[in-house]
Amino acid sequence: MVEPHLGRGESPQVRTPVIVATMLGLLALLTVVAFGLALFFPQRIGVRFVPRHSFPLPAVIPDERAQRMGLEARQRRELSGADGRLPIEQAMHDIAARGPHAFDTVKQ
Fold it and tell me: What is the pTM of this model?
């Protein structure tokens, strides 16, 4: 015997007024959000176009190669131990000499 309410529409557990109330609540919430956005952005209401601003042209550096060469020379000097710095080769050797404890906290 087939139950008379099965396969013929809604299940008796579905409460139509709850669903309708939920949908009306969501519609009201979306309406409030839409009008709320109008309160926060009043200058944008009714605007159909935005003025176009062009990007600035790229800056031209006439001596870019000389600038790069100077930067590389300064970096080489710093890595080789200029201004009282530890040379990179010595620093790498010191770290490798510590073995598995190379990255432990430094004791002072």
Answer: 0.38
